[in-house]
Amino acid sequence: MNINSARLMSRLKEYGDIGRDSQGRLARIAFTDADKLGRDQLVTWMQAAGLNVEVDKIGNIHGLWEPESVVESRPIMMGSHIDTVLNAGIYDGNYGVLAGLEVILALQEAGFKPSRGIVVSAFSNEEGAHYAPDMMGSLVYSGGYSVKKALATIGLNGLVLGSELQRIGYAGLNEPGFIQPKAYIELHIEQGPVLENLELPIGVVENLQGISWQRITIEGVANHAGTTPMSMRADAGIATAQVMLHLKDYVTQKGNGMVSTIGTILFEPNIINVIPSKSVFSVDLRSPCESDLKDAELSLAQCLNEIEEIDGFNISVERLARFEPVTFDRNLVESIEKASNGRGFISKRMTSGAGHDAQMMARICPSAMIFVPSKDGISHNPREYTEEQHLINGANLLLDSIKGLAI
Amino acid sequence: MNINSARLMSRLKEYGDIGRDSQGRLARIAFTDADKLGRDQLVTWMQAAGLNVEVDKIGNIHGLWEPESVVESRPIMMGSHIDTVLNAGIYDGNYGVLAGLEVILALQEAGFKPSRGIVVSAFSNEEGAHYAPDMMGSLVYSGGYSVKKALATIGLNGLVLGSELQRIGYAGLNEPGFIQPKAYIELHIEQGPVLENLELPIGVVENLQGISWQRITIEGVANHAGTTPMSMRADAGIATAQVMLHLKDYVTQKGNGMVSTIGTILFEPNIINVIPSKSVFSVDLRSPCESDLKDAELSLAQCLNEIEEIDGFNISVERLARFEPVTFDRNLVESIEKASNGRGFISKRMTSGAGHDAQMMARICPSAMIFVPSKDGISHNPREYTEEQHLINGANLLLDSIKGLAI
Fold first, then answer.
1. Are A289 and A375 in the same domain?
2. Concatenated DSSP letters for B330-387?
3. What value of ipTM does the predicted structure carry?
4. Per-residue pLDDT tens over the stretch A300-346
5. B209, B226, B378 member nearest A354 (Cβ)
6. Do A248 and B230 touch (CB under 8 A)?
7. In the listed set B306, B323, B340, which residue is the last one of a domain according to the structure?
8. pTM of the entire structure?
9. Domain range spanning residue B273?
10. Do A83 and A30 lie in a common domain?
11. Which pick of A32, A105, A198, B257 has the fewest CB atoms within 10 Å?
12. Chain A / chain B CB contacts < 8 angstroms
């Protein structure tokens, strides 16, 4: 049994053209008119497949296939998201949802009689482009965030989420969690370079990194770049460089899948001949192991303390986000691995470095993910690309995995 | 013989209120209406002192005292500038010009009969706030830059320098260099913390740092902060931190008065969860010794080369400015030092880290500078401050030094 690869590819392409802006950029930002267009097309396709389409209070769309053969009470859920960032590629999220729908179609067309319902879900606002937090739809669905709070969120555009959801016609009546899945599997592009570099077609995701985001402000003393001897400086920029290299060295030495990134930086006054009086920078620390993550945070704090003990420095730290690592269900991971072997795919167990709806669903049911390679690891960019054969392989592996759970 | 300290202080204060903008910020930016107001007041005071006021083609104002006692052909020149940056303090430049005028008044009032003319000059556009290069008036005066080119300069405000100079009425007829001084002494606030930290009242400036300004662009590869292992990164930010610490360590170890500053930085895309693909930063290197400066530039280039050899990195370097160090006249420095001893001031020979008109005048005559302490080393800022006693000491030392040269 195989998915219809021509249909999947043509739908992915067609779907990638929905919601392009006047400059040709794909931008189906959650709860905008473009998002509505994407939702409408998905619902149309779900209905054409005979699925029972349900929308919940945070706007998650669920397409449920529950033919007469179903005897077990809890369905198997597949899913991901259909919202995008600004100037996005066409695979992130969409691939998982459209492949899920394709799996149901393939099962239907092969005359498969599931013992459980099979549902494909598109979770609202995974990207968090306008409304924080990201992964909102699955977070609310799994009980980690109240519907009321989510609907009251004010977006970067100044608009209230709940009103926008009403406006685009996707404020559903179902309570989050109204479908209690037996298991959840999410198929996604890797958004990283690991599979491509190892030339492997499939990643079986066994866990997801914990994330620690901090914003650090180092205040030093602005002085003339020419007249201030090196020994009399409190240079906020140099202190920042020391923190950057300390973190990089610590994390590299520690290994174990941990990564650290200083992605943003701002100097004040940012003038060529003035010693920086202030540096504001972000720290993004990730690890699949909570104790490693804590140790790295501690090491960073110690490094900052040492700097602050030097005359002229003052440091403040703001926590922006903190998620503990998520370990996916071992049985589910093994069953996907077996299905991969059955197809003759060499797979690699791996850690997801990005956040996904699966990490929220893991709160309420056994969950796992399937990754396919991303060209150059690029994502959130029009250059995001995954070869057709990889996309087809991933969808067929999802098909086999779901079939195995719904027999 | 002493200067009239009450008059000097009252004039400094009065002069500091000329050209404040609607927000109360002192901004006598060269060739603006505010600059004209400052020039007019200076000329008024020069004329009241019976000086022969001459303006040259680049707008430098020279007030020449040449009583009947003068028998030598070349006058002694004092000077500095009266233009300011935006939101300036009241001492930078103005102090040297007003103290110079005060020296002539004191000599006159004491009935001193100079054997040489004594001239106090205010050089145009030392700050270069709207029109590059800075130190323009003295650079043109000393033959380092053509009048024609200078007058054709387009300012940040889009206006042509020559037209603005005409408009404010200070386009003189004298050729630059029309007065050939026997010697030039510039009195200035230190604009650095050295004298204050050593609790010394006087700095005798024996040389001026060479300056090397470069803008460096490191291109790496943008990738997801969560999904890209540390070993697969080409992080332009981390590479920048390595360059920053390399330079700082090199310069600190080398000593010998060299300083380095990375004052500006910009990451792209500057997003918390994206590895920087690009970092653009400035390097400000200064040393009183040309070979040290060259060695440091070479060491920087080697450090950049090593980074560029790593996969994924691409580096470009743009030279923004390069001035060789200037050594002031040894005899003049010694004579100032002696005069300082004569007043009972403990002085320190020092290097100027900032650029001054004296470095340009050193091209055409023996030159030197006198520094007085700056509170916290702050300059180019309303908080710029020098204690009254220091200002008076500096002016009295200038008086004695000039007197000694004009006997």
1. no
2. HHHHHHHHHHHHHHT--EEEEEE-S--HHHHHTTTS-EEEEEE--GGG--SSTT----
3. 0.80
4. 999 999 999 999 999 999 998 898 999 999 999 999 999 999 999 99
5. B226
6. yes
7. B323
8. 0.80
9. 210-323
10. yes
11. A198
12. 196
